[in-house]
Amino acid sequence: MKKIVGIFSLVLLMSSCLNDFLEIEPLNTVSTEIYWKTENDVRAALNAGYVPLKDAYKKGFLNWYEARSDNFIGSSGGTNPYQNVCFNKLTAALPSCDWNAWYKLVSVANYAIYYIPRMGEVMAENRRDHLLSEAYFLRAYAYFNLYKIWGDVPLVSQPVLKKSDVYKPVRSSKESIMELIKGDLSEAARLVDDSETELYIYSPGALYALCTEVAMWNGDYDGAIGYSQRLYDLNVYTLEGTDFKKVCADPKTTDNIWTLKWSYVLDGANSIVTTYVNSGNLLVPTKEILEKWKEWGGADDVRRPATLDTTKITAYRDNHIVRMPVGCQIWKWSPGERLGETAYRDCYIPIYRLADIVLLRAEALNRKGDYQGAIDEMNKVRRRAGLAERLLSDYTVSGGGVDWLRIEDDILQERQFELYGEGKRWSDLMRTGRLESVMNAFYDGYITTYGGRGFIRYTEEWQRYWPVSQDILNENDKLVQTGNY
Amino acid sequence: MVLREMIGPRITLLLLFFSFSLFLYSQGRVVKGVVTDSNGPLPGVNITVRDSKARAVTDIDGRYSIDVAADGVLTFSFTGYVSYKADVKGRSVIDVVMKESLQELDEVVVVGYGTMRKRDITGAITSVGAADLINNAPTSVATALQGKVAGLEILSSSEPGATSTYRIRGASTISSEGSNPLFIVDGMEVDNIDNINPRDIASVEVLKDAASAAIYGSKSANGVVIITTRQGTSSTPQVSVSYSVKQSRISHKLPQMNRQQGIDYEILRAYLQNSEPSAFSRDTLNPSFTWDNNYQDILFRNAYTHQVDASISGAEKKLKYFLSAGYLSDEGIQLNSYNRRITSRVNADYAVTERFTVGTRLSFTTGNNRMTPWGGRSNILSRPASMALILPDGTYAPVVANRTNPLAYTMLCKNDNKYYDVNFNGFMEYKIIKDLKFRTSIAASFYQKNFRYFQPAILVASQIPSSKNTHTTNFKWTHEDILTYSRTFDDVHSLSVLGGFSIQQYSSEYVNLSVSDNITEAVETSSGFGTVDMEDTKHAWTANRMASWFGRVSYSYKQRYLFNSNIRYDGSSRFGRANRWGLFPSVSLGWRFSDEGFMDWSDGFLSDAKLRYSFGKTGNQTAGDFAALSQYSTVAYVDYIGIMPTQLENDLLGWEDTKQHNVGVDFSFLDGRINFNFDYYRKRTSHVLFNMKLPGTTGFDNSYSNIGAVRNRGYEFMISTRNIKTRDFEWTTTLNIAVNKNVITSIPSEAVQIVNDVYILDNGYTLGTMYGYRARMIFPYDQSNAFTPEWVQLTPVFDEKDRFVKYQLNGQDYTGEVKQLRYGSPTGEVFKGGDVMWDDLNGDGVIDEADRQVIGCGQPDFIGGFSTDFRYRNFTLSAFFSFAIGGDVYNNYESSRSDHKWSSLTMANPVNVANSWKAPGDIAKYPQPSSARSTVDNTRKASSLWIEDGSYIRLKNIKLEYRLPDRWASAARMRSASVSLMLQDFFTWTNYSGFDPEIPSSGYTVGYDNNSYPKAKSVLLGISLNF
What we know:
The complex is a heterodimer of chains A (about 475) and B (about 1050).
Chain A: H1 2-21, H2 39-47, H3 50-67, E1 72-74, H4 82-86, H5 100-115, H6 125-150, E2 153-154, E3 171-172, H7 174-191, H8 204-217, H9 221-233, H10 246-249, E4 256-260, H11 264-267, H12 271-276, E5 283-285, H13 287-297, H14 303-307, E6 349-353, H15 354-367, H16 371-385, H17 404-418, H18 425-431, H19 435-449, H20 470-475
Antiparallel strand pairs in A: 1-5, 2-3, 4-6
Helix pairs in contact in A: 2-6, 3-5, 5-6, 6-7, 7-8, 8-9, 8-15, 9-15, 15-16, 15-17, 16-17
Chain B: H1 2-20, E1 28-37, E2 40-41, E3 46-49, E4 55-57, E5 63-69, E6 73-77, E7 84-87, E8 96-97, E9 108-111, E10 114-117, E11 125-129, H2 130-133, H3 141-145, E12 152-155, E13 165-168, E14 182-185, E15 188-190, E16 201-207, H4 210-213, E17 224-229, E18 238-250, H5 259-273, H6 295-299, E19 303-315, E20 319-331, E21 338-351, E22 356-370, H7 406-412, E23 414-433, E24 436-455, E25 466-489, E26 493-518, E27 529-532, E28 538-557, E29 561-572, E30 581-591, E31 606-620, E32 631-637, E33 640-647, E34 656-669, E35 674-693, E36 702-725, E37 729-746, E38 753-755, E39 759-761, E40 769-772, E41 775-778, E42 795-798, E43 804-809, E44 812-814, E45 822-823, E46 836-838, E47 846-847, E48 853-857, E49 862-872, E50 875-885, E51 888-891, H8 892-897, H9 910-914, E52 947-949, E53 952-963, H10 966-971, E54 976-990, E55 1008-1009, E56 1016-1026
Parallel strand pairs in B: 1-8, 14-17, 45-47, 51-55
Antiparallel strand pairs in B: 1-2, 1-5, 3-4, 3-6, 6-7, 9-10, 11-16, 12-13, 14-15, 16-17, 18-19, 18-56, 19-20, 20-21, 21-22, 22-23, 23-24, 24-25, 25-26, 26-27, 26-28, 28-29, 29-30, 30-31, 31-34, 32-33, 34-35, 35-36, 36-37, 37-49, 38-39, 40-48, 41-46, 42-43, 43-44, 49-50, 50-53, 51-52, 53-54, 54-56
C-alpha cells in the first residue's frame, strides 16, 4: 500500500514539474502578454483595421451607396442582382447584409482604445495621443457606416479579450450609436496631431472630413462649418490646380484627403471599379442622368466626358432597363480611355475628397443664411469643372429674398455629378430627407417609362435600412431583423 | 479425410511416446537439443518441465539444455506454434521440430506497449499479418488494409500520392480534422502512414474499442492503428526480391458534350430563353473554336507503375536484423501525375548480454510527387469541346472566355512535392530480475516536404505568372520508459503489470514564398519576381507537447477468467492550465466458457469460445496547438502590415472524451477451421472540440469550444473458414461486415449549420446527412401546377389544338378551387411547365426553407469485405471483394455542370439534357436546360436531383499465382519463387453515374463528389523470389 501511495505521490509531484514542460509559447503569432509594448505595436495593430474596412467595402460598397440610388440601373443576373438592389427588393441573402467586417474594425479600435492608455511611457505623448485619436476615428467611422446602412445596430464599445467576454448584444437605437460616434469624434479631435499627413490611412484631414459629414447628418451646421474650417486651416488640401481627370484615376492630388489602397495580389481585382466597367454590364448609368448632365453643363462640363464613356453611352433602347445597353460604362478611373476589365485591378478608391467637403460646407453655409458664402464654395467646384460661376443674383426671387432651397438643390446636383460613382449619392438622399421623393419619382417616372417592373416604392421609414444577414441572426438570437424584411 | 490429414501426425507422435515409455529411467539428468521449424532453428522457445520450476529458453541457434528427471515431461511452447510435449524417457538429446499452429488463437497480437496472445484478448482488436497485407501487391498501407478489418473504413483515390481517409467505427467527432485514428509505427506516433512500404510490415493491429485504445489516452478516441515492422527470425539469411508492373487506365468515363452537341445545346438554350445563339462558337474560321475535344480521352492515359522491392533478414547468435529497400514509380492515369518513391529500412536487435538487449528501427523514405493541379481537371466536363487546346502555332491556348486550358494546366503547371521522411527508434531492454523487464526508448521522426508551384501566365485570365515555394519541416520526438512484470503463479494465475511514462514533442515549421509577376517563365521557381503576396509570404511555427503516465494490469485465472485494465494520465500543452490533465481509464473482462465443465459436450466440435466485455474512456485533442491562448496574426493593408487579434484566450478549453462499451464473442470450431467473431459497441463522445462560430460583433470569427455530443452504435462480425483442406486442394473464405449508426445527440444552436450547401449539422442527424429540397417531378405543362386545397395534384386536359380545357381529378372533372405552388413567398413566382415540382413539406403552397428535408446520407448502412482463396497444388486463385451498401453520393460534378444559369459556354451533361424538359408535355427527369427560369432556382444545389445511390460492390482484386515446385526452386537455390497475374479494381457494380462512388472525404461532407480523381482499373504482373 505504501508503495502505491509512493508511486501516486511521485506521479503527482512530477506532473506539476511537467506543467512547465507543457508550456509552449507560439513563435510566429503573438499573444497579448507580449504585445502592446512599443509604438510600432500600436501602429501595426491600427494598420490591421484597414483590412476589414476594405473587406466591408468589397462586400457592400456598391450595394449600399450606389446601386440603391438613382445613379445606376442594374442587371438582373448573377449572384448579386444589382437590379434587385436598384428596385429596392432587398433580401437577407445578399452578401452586403453582412456587417461582420465592420465589427472587426470596431474590435481593432476597441483593442487599441483599451490598451494604449495602459501601455505606460513607451512613446512621446503627442504620438500616443495621435494614435489613440486614430483608434477613436476608426471606431467612429465603422459605426457611422453601420448607422447609415442598418440604423439600429449592436453597440460594442469594450474589447472582447477572452472567451468569457463573449456575449450576444441586442440592437441599440441609432440615436445611441450616433451618441457614441459624436463622443469618439470629439475625443479624436481633441487628441489629433494636426501636423500629421497621410493619404492611405488616418490623417487630421480624414478626421475633419468625417466630423463635417457627421455634423451635416445631425443638422449641426455650425459644427460642419467649424470642422470644415479646421480642415481648410491644415493648408494641405486645395482644388486649385487639380485635374478632375485624376481624382479617381490617380487619387493622390491635393483634392484627395483619404484614399483606400488596393493590391491585386492581396485583394483580388478591385470589384468596385471593375463592376463599373464590366463587359457584362452589371451597373449602367441611367439615361436620366445622361440627359440631366447634358442639360446642366452642356459641353462645358469637363466632368461628364471624364466620367461617362462617351464612345458608348449613346445607345439606350426603349427597353434598356430590361435589356441593358451594351458597353455602357463609366471610365472615371481612366478618363477618355476605354481599357479592359483587367486594367482596373489595382485601382484605388477615394473615400474623402476636398470637393465633397467643400460642397457640404456650402450646404451648411446656405442653411445658416450665408448664401454668398455657400455660392462661393459651390463655385470652387464649378470652376474646376469648367462651368460658369454662379452669382447670388441667380437665386434672388422677384420679391427680394433668396431662394435658398434652389441653392441647396443646385449644391446637391453638383454633388451628384462631382461624386458620381464614389459612393455618396445614397447618403445624400438619406441625409437630406429627399430619399422618398427622389426615389419614388425615379421609379414612377424613369423606371416605369422604360419597362422596369417589380420595384418597391419607399413608404416606410425602415425601408431606408438594410436587412441583416440570416447567418448573423442565427448566430445571435437576441437580434431582430430590420423592419419587415 | 481432411480430419485425418490434420490429426494423423499427432497420433503417430503419441504412439512414439508410448513406445519409448517402456524404457523408463528415474534419475535426473541434463537434456539438450535443438528446436527447429520448417525454416530452421527457432530461438526463444519456452521449455518447461511438468511438476517442476525448471525452465529454459532456446538460444539464437535453437539450442537448449535443461535439468529434468529421466521420466519427466518437457513442454515446448512458442507463440504461433503448436505446443509440443515430450516424455524424456531417459534420452539426453531431444531435437524437436515445431509445427506452426493452425489455430489463430496462439498468434501474438500487439497491444499498446506490449503483446498478448490472441487467446487472452478481451477487447476488440483485429490483427492483419504480413501475408495478408501484401497479397494484392499494394503501393501503400491504405490499399493493403482496405476491406480487411471489420469496422475500419478506408477511402482512397487512385491519384498517386493522395492521402486516404481512415475511420474506425464511424466518425466520433464533429470537427472536420479530428476523426483519423492514431497511428503508431514501432511504438512511435506518426501523423500519417502513407510513406511506409507495406512489404516492411510484419503486422497491423487495429484497436477498435476504448478499453484497448485507452492506453494511448487522449489521442485514441478514434481508435489506434499499430504497425510493427519486420524483424529477422531465421538463422539462415533470407533474401526476398519482388517486382511488379501494373498498367492502369480510367475505369469509367463520363458523358460529355462533343462539338455538335455543344452547338445544339446553345441553340436549345437560346430557343428556351428567347435569345439568339452566339455566332462565334459556330464560326468555322476561328481557330479557337474549331476543335472537337473529348477531354477525358486527351487527359487520361494508360499508366504504368513499377515496383521493385528487396529485403534480407536473419537472426544470428546475438543479432536479429531486417534490411529492405524498395522503389516505386507510380504513374497516375492523368497525364503528368506521378509519385516516385524510394523506401529503405534497417531494423536490428542486438543481445549485449543475456539480460540486456539494444535495438534500432530506422527507416528512410524520399519521393517526388506531382499531383494534377486544380485547373487540370476542374472544367474538363463543362468546357466546350470546340475550344482550342493548342493554337495553330503549336503553343497551348490561353484562357478563352474564362475557360482555362486543362491540358496546359496538366502539362505546364508545376505542382510538385519532394518529401523526405526519416524515422528512428532506438531502445534498450534490461531484465532486472527474471520476471521484471525495463525498456526505455527514444524515437524521432523527421519529415521535410518541399512544395513547388509555378503557374505560367498562359494558364490564367489575368496573364500574370505566379509561383509558390513552401518548405515544411515536421519534427517529433518521443521518450518512453516502461516497466513490465509478468509471472504465472501456481500455473493457474498469470499476472502481468505494466507501468510507463512518456514525454513527446511535436513541432512544425513552415516557410512560404508566394510571388507573382515572375520575370521569366524559364525559371520555374520563386526567383526574380515583381510582386510578393504580403500575407502569404511568411514563416510559421507551431508545436505541442505531451507528458503521460500509463499502466496496465492483466490477470487471468487458468486462461479462463480474464481481466484487463488500462489507464493513462495525459497532460497536453494544447489546453488551458485549468484543464490540462486528463485521466483515461478502462477495464475489460473475458470469460472462456468453452473451458467450463458444462461445455464438455461440445468438445471436438467447439474448440474455443470466449465472451468479452469492455468499457473505457478515451480522448481527442484535435484543436490548434495554441487553441487556448489569445493570438494575433499578420494581415496586410497593401504595404501597411498589421497585426490583428484572431484568437480569443480560452483557458477552460479541455479534452474531448469518448466513452465506449463493447461486448464481443469469439468462437472457434473444429480446431480453428471456422472462426467467428462478433462485436457490438456503443460509443458516446462528449465535450466535442468544435471550432464554433462566434457572434460577429465580437470581431472574431470562431473559437474552439467543448460542445455537443455524438453517438455511434454498431456491430461488426467476421467469419473465416477453411472449407476444404487437402494436400493438393485448399479453399478458404473470409467475410467481414460492419454496421455503424451515427447521430449528433447534442449541438448548440450556434453550431447548427449547412456545409457545402447540403450537409446539415444539427441535433438528431447523422454526420453526412444531406438536407434540402426533394424534387417530385418536372411539371409537364404550365397547367400541371394545379392542386386541390388538400394539395392533391390535378390533371389538366387539353383539346386537339393543345388548348387547355379543364382539370380532372381521378378521372372526374374538377371545378373546385385550384391552388398553385409558388417560389419563395405567398406572392412569389408561380412554377410553370419545365420547372421542378418540389415537395411542399408543410403544405403551405410556398416552396421555401421550411420545405427542406433529409434527402440522403453519405454514410453507408454497412461496409465490409469478402475474400476467397483456392489453392490447387502450386496454383492459387484468390479474389477479394469490398463493398459499401446504402450510402448516398452528392454529385457536385453533375450539379455544377447542370446549373444552366451560367452561360451557354458551360456545357451540361448530354445525357441529362436529353432527359430534360424541352417543350410542353414532356415527361422529364430534369428541368428545362436554360437560364430562363433561373428566378425559381430549378437547379439549386440543395436538391435531391444531384443525390445518387453510392452503393457498390467492387472486385478489388482477383489474382492467379503460380508457385514454382519446391524441387525446381531448390535446384535454382531458391526457397520459393512465384509469379502472379492480377486484376485490380477491375469490376465495380454500382448505380452511381460519376467516376467512382468511393470518395475520400473529410469530416462531415461524407460522399461529396467534387472534382474527384477518376478511379483506375489495372492489370498487374508480379514476380517474387525468395532465397
